[in-house]
Amino acid sequence: MTTIENGSGTKQLAGKRALVTGGSRGIGAAVVRQLLNAGAEVLTTARSATNSVPEGAGFVAADVRTRAGAEALAEAAREILGGVDILVHNAGGARPFPGSSSIPDEEWRDALDLNLLAAVRLDALLTPEMRERHSGMIVHISSAVVPAPVAPFLHYTAAKAALENYSRGLSAELAPFGIRVNTVSPGKTATPGGEQTREQWARIAPGQSDTSGVPLGRDGRPDDIADAVLFLLSDRASWLTGSSLVVDGGEFHR
Ligand code: NDP
Question: What DSSP assignment string belongs to the chain?
Fold first, then answer.
């Protein structure tokens, strides 16, 4: 885990207010822990409250797939944090289907709502205040699998591909206002959601889901991904915007 301090020993994100979606487990919980460790004040959300939300973080229950959920979350962030300097869109995922023609309309809509529109809506609600303050940092969590889409997940990868494209466009729009927007694309990471999805995939398509052979020899840990997020939120990334950082042990680079 990265401990981020500036030269004088002050925690580098002290005084920053961060909103992280999906912080009750997996990658989101690691991001929340690392933000707290770097001195930020953190509010997170999930649909159901659990005792696994990292200690020290604020929590508000919301479903980011809906406009009402995004509006409630933005309002809670204003009330509890007084504003948002850092926005990490982490909540995401989708369940697999045997092939593209078996993915129902409602699952396509759900995948687009969770993996694309949740970020679009929340950014639209919170970036006007960042523009006024002339500062802000946004990280969208995509997936390393986007360049190599497979049939069971076409709804998911299409939504994440759109998220990456949107993120690059947003970065260009917001750069003149001092706001940096970047994407982190995880590979196979050991999280409750990741494991559950891979089990479902193995059941519907035995053999296809075997992703052993990660060049660096192991699956990712939530902190591997959180390290990349924290780097992008640090002063060391002050000249980085519109980028996509792939953190996958080399799996999708071959
Ligand atoms: P998990 O399923 O382990 O955790 C997801 C978190 O998001 C939970 O806190 C969950 O809480 C919350 N969440 C899910 N749906 C909603 C919703 N509609 N509204 C609000 N919160 C929600 O996911 P991971 O940590 O595995 O994944 C995190 C991100 O990384 C996702 O965007 C995923 O697509 C991406 N990713 C993960 C990979 C992996 O191998 N793990 C690989 C590539 C990308 P609750 O269920 O209570 O709402």
Answer: ----B-TTS-BTTTT-EEEEESTTSHHHHHHHHHHHHTT-EEEEEESS--TTSPTT-EEEE--TTSHHHHHHHHHHHHHHHSS-SEEEE--------SSGGGS-HHHHHHHHIIIIIHHHHHHHHHHHHHHHHT-EEEEEE--TTTTS--GGGHHHHHHHHHHHHHHHHHHHHHGGGTEEEEEEEE-SB--HHHHHHHHHHHHHSTTTT-----TTSS-B-HHHHHHHHHHHTSGGGTT--S-EEEESTTGGG-
Q: Which atom of ligand 1 is nearest to the CA of 64?
A: 19
Residue 105's pLDDT is what? Answer: 98
Ligand 1: centre distance to CA 8 (Å): 36
Read off the pLDDT of residues 8-33 as tens digits, 9 standing for 90 and up. 667 999 999 999 999 999 999 999 99
Of the candidates 26, 23, 5, 34, the one whose C-alpha atom is nearest the C-alpha of residue 226 is 34
Q: Which of 156, 201, 231, 252 is catalytic?
A: 156
Q: Report which ligand 1 atom has the smallest distance to the Cα of 193.
A: 2
